Every structure is written in structure tokens, then in C-alpha cells.
Amino acid sequence: MSIVTPAARAEGQRLFGAFQTWGAAPVEAAVLQPAGTLLDLYGEDIRARAYVTQDPVQGEMMLRPDFTVPVVQAHMAGGADPARYCYLGEVFRKQEQGAERASEYLQVGYEVFDRDQPLRADAEVFALFARMLAGKGLRAATGDIGILIAAVRGLPTSDTRKAALMRHLWRPVRFRSLLERFAGRAPLPKGRAALLARMKAGDPVESPAPQIGLRSRAEIETRLARLAEDSATPAIPADVVDALEALVGVADKAPAALSAMRGIAAVMPWITPSLDTFEQRLTVLAAHGVDVAGLDFEASYGRTTLEYYDGFVFGFFAETRPDLPPVASGGRYDALTQVLGQGRSIPAVGGVIRPALLVELEGGQ
């Protein structure tokens, strides 16, 4: 844990006030959040990054790992449309052993809910952050998770395989491993290969030992049937796999990146609508004063953050301090509003700034 310094608190208040001058309504969120909601959204992975406690009345709770989820919940319960919110407060994240990063730090954020003009909202948030962070020596990086999502959803393969790739889109190593296996370029795990061989030969896979564990016999049989179905699924064509791997590796200035992805779309035409949206966003960003010709774009940017981003993503980094996390980051999370809105949804985008990092970079205390 760390204590928020007076300098960081003052910087946070300055940014918080600036967001309010841009029309954002200040909101608060409880420090203790229901763990069930976060686990439903992110799975058990979030448990490794959050502080979990047990409340005798409310059950399992987590120290607030971010503000976005509670802000979305509050908005979907009855917020205006469009709406802008801002917040300031501590968030809590576990750090790896030996890491020097703080596990408790101040976060100030800005969120926009706009059904009618989502591209303008993307540009508004990014341009506002760029102006507020100008002169701080930071490099901006952008990406678009929506392009990668479209690429996976359009693959000529089974829904089961596409679902598996989507689950691991935010885990690049596992994603590539699965893609190589689905392309027939990597062998099956030995245990699975042996099991499938027994099933193909008609050998029984049951054991005389008593059944233990949480899975029922029906669930096990369903799983075996899915493994057999997957083993019979044709490999994803090599040219498509090569194109997807090339897409994941695109990193250039935004106009050049768009040109490269247009070339890849010759093999993966189903990503064209997402590229059209990306091109339109660049036009809107330029209208908001952003130098898109000098804007860095990385197709894989945002794949190792929380999994609710599903469109435009961005971050601001101190290039002279590669040991530091992003000073600011954000993105679009439309699908999250549908999950938390119980079927209702609204396009939403936002971002956060870490005031303590700004103070540290400026030599403050």
C-alpha cells in the first residue's frame, strides 16, 4: 500500500475541477464493491489483481479496482442521455512481488455516454486528455480492439473456436497458441491427443474410480462431445491465419497503419466496416485538433488491460520512464453497458489519469 501525497491530491483536485468545467457531473463510488459483479465480468482473473474481503452481511467484497464499473451501474440505473461524469478517488490493485508500483493510488477520470455520436465522444475524450497532458513529455498511443474483435468473429471456423479465441483475446500468448493450433501448425496437448485417440478407437474413457469434482456426468459427456467435434473441425486457412497475425502486429502512424490494414482486408474482407469506422474516427479526431498524421497506432494496444474495452483505446506514456505504467489510459466499452444494463445499452467511452505519476515526472513529492 502507499499513502497519497498532498501534491498528488492537489494535482488530482486540479484535474477533477478541469473535468467539471467541461460539463462532467462529479460522482462518487463506494470503496467496497460487490465481488460477484466483478467476477461475473472478468472471471477469476480479477481475484489475483484485487483485494478481496468478506462482509458478514454483503458477502464477498472487493476494494475498488477501478471506477468504471460502478459509474456504468449508476448511469444505467437512470442517468441522462447523453451524460458526462468525472470522479476522483483511490483504487486498489495488487502488484507482482518485487514490483515498485503502488498498490493504492489516486485516479481521476472522465466518462461520456452518448448514443447518437460515439465517434465524436471518442475524439472528445482523447482530445481533452491530450490538451490536459500537453507539455508533460508524454507519448500518446492508440488502438482499436473493435478491429481485432471483428477479425476473430469473421474467421471461417466454428463458433466454438471463435468463442475460445475471443475469451483469450486479452491474453496474447494464449491467443497465439490457440490460433496456431486451430491452424494445424501446433500439436494438440498430449493428454487431449491421447483422449481423442481413445475415443476414435472406441475405447471407453470411463474410470472405475469413484467420480469426484464439481462436474456432473452430463457435463463431462458434453465436454467430450465438444472435443470430438472440435477435432473434426477443418483448420483455419493458412492465408487467413497469416493475415490475422499480420493484423495483430500492425504498429505505425495512424494513416500508415490504416493503409496496412486495408491491405490485410484483401484476405479478411469482414474487417472492412471496422476499418471504415477507424478512418471516420481519424477524420473526427483531426476536427478536434489532433495531429492524426503523427498519432501512433498499435493494433494490439489495450490487449493486456481490463477486458471491458471493445473499441477505441488510448494511453499516454512517459518515454523517459519505461518503468512507469501509463500516466493516462482509456477507451470505449459499449458491451459493458449492455451487461450492466441488463439488456439496455448505450455507447460509452472514458479515461483515467494517475495524478501521482504526473507529480513524480515533474519532480514533486
UniProtKB/TrEMBL annotation:
Pfam families: tRNA-synt_His (PF13393). GO terms for molecular function: glycosyltransferase activity; histidine-tRNA ligase activity. GO terms for biological process: histidyl-tRNA aminoacylation. Coiled coil: none annotated. L-histidine binds at D66, F67, T68, R93, Q107, E111, R303, Y308, Y309. GO terms for cellular component: cytoplasm. Keywords: Glycosyltransferase, Transferase. Residues 13-195, 229-351 form the Class II Histidinyl-tRNA synthetase (HisRS)-like catalytic core domain. It comes from the Bacteria. PANTHER family: HISTIDINE--TRNA LIGASE, MITOCHONDRIAL-RELATED, HISTIDYL-TRNA SYNTHETASE. This is ATP phosphoribosyltransferase regulatory subunit. It comes from Pararhodobacter marinus. The lineage of its organism: Bacteria, Pseudomonadati, Pseudomonadota, Alphaproteobacteria, Rhodobacterales.
